[in-house]
Amino acid sequence: MHETVAPASGVNGLARLPGDKSISHRYALLAAIAEGESLIRNYSTGADCRSTLGCLGALGVPVAVEGCEVRIAGRGLEGLREPAGELDAGNSGSTIRMLAGILAGQKFRSRITGDESLSRRPMDRIMLPLRQMGAEVEGRDGRFPPLAIRGGALHAIDYALPVASAQVKTCVLLAGLYADAATTVREPVPTRDHTELALREFGARVEKKGPAITVQPRPALRGRQLRVPSDLSSAAFFLAAALVTPDSSLLVEGVGLNPTRSHLLDFLISMGGKIEIRNLAATGGELAGDLLARSSRLRGGVIEGAATAALIDEIPVLAVLGAASEEGLAVRDARELRLKETDRIATVADNLGRMGAAVEVWEDGFTVPGGQKLRAARLDSFGDHRIAMACAVAALIADGESRIDGAGAAAVSFPEFFETLRRLAR
Ligand code: S3P
Which of 11, 84, 304, 392 is 20 to 30 Å from 179 at the Cα level? Predict the structure, then answer.
């Protein structure tokens, strides 16, 4: 499926965006192993979060979806059922990596698979700690999906993450719920802490001391009523579109502003972006607020070190802003980008190249010089949701109508993306 996107002079009005993908996965997983019913409001409409619900259903967890509300009848820590067939994580790295932590604690065998893109993504990063805890985990060619997991009694570990990854951290902490003592994960740089916050909401004991996060085993998890804030990583495309087009004033409501995610706002503001935060409030341990973004003169910037981990999902759209900015954008320490739904260093450079923009590619990042005019072009998502949406933002500032092949990939996190863009961009 393709979409065409015409240049726009502005993005205006009010945007209400789907629930945060990261938080939706975590609430659903914890609701499934809690006692009693949970009601999750504003659950992500993205296909990835449906994959998590599908897997939970196959594990015998009653799940009822009505619009954006999801009711989950928790089965307790030990109540999951051996699945009849393979669990399907679809395109979702979060589903396979985080659910594997729970499966490692179950007394049955399970197999979890995914689509072509997911089948190329490395799983050794979770296999290693889960094996150290005592689970049997096999992967295709030793490290790729499908994964075959034989769980059981787990030993607590103290695990230093070799790469900054919230998915791996979550996997180990969830397995730690089934361990024989307290499990600790140490992070090289801070990553999103939704799991820590959600575990506390559901009743687990989690402590953070510097880079170490410790979870106590066998908690009494209780079903909860929670509302998922809107997804800042989805909002990023609209914020970027508003900043970079000349006649914009856009209000995005109820967006998640967890400090481990909101570095995006600091970075956009440091580039010269006019963004205001309004109505900041706490919900279920998470912060949320409204964001007002207006047309801005963007300077440029450098993303490296801890900032790279904090901005990892937003880098494709920030690259577009870099091309349009005065001084450009340099991204470093971003090898992880090559292991996402696509190799995002390659797919960003490919698409900007099609628009006539210069991009210098490095092993661990890229540099996009500023002051570049983008030409209308035939672009390609390569099946990656964030690349589809970043291409759409680039198309808004091109010199004519662009075509985006594989635009349907946006549905992985944001099925309403193109419809919302058509409503707001003029
Ligand atoms: C996520 C963590 C990040 C991010 C992904 C969602 C999460 O992945 O890219 O979109 O919800 O924990 P890594 O843990 O692989 O960095």
Answer: 84
**Using one digit for the tens of pLDDT, what is the confidence trace for 65-82?**
999 999 999 999 999 999
Domain with CATH 3.65.10.10 in the chain: 2-19+229-424, 21-214
Cβ-contact 317, 235 below 8 angstroms:
no
Assigned CATH topology for domain 21-214:
UDP-n-acetylglucosamine1-carboxyvinyl-transferase; Chain (3.65.10)
118 and 144 Cβ atoms separated by less than 8 Å: no
Whole-angstrom distance, CA of residue 365 vs CA of residue 316: 11
- To the query of whether residue 313 is one of the catalytic residues in this protein, the response is yes
> Ligand 1 center to residue 93 CA distance, Å?
8
Residue that has been written with the tokens 């797919």 in this structure: 347
Catalytic residue among 290, 313, 380, 384: 313
The predicted-structure confidence for 18-68, as pLDDT tens digits, reads as follows 999 999 999 999 999 999 999 999 999 999 999 999 999 999 999 999 999
**First-last CA distance in the chain:** 23
**Does domain 2-19+229-424 bear CATH number 3.40.1620.10?**
no
pTM beyond cutoff 0.90: yes
Ligand 1 binding residues, C-beta < 6 A? 22, 94, 165-167, 170, 192, 312-313, 336
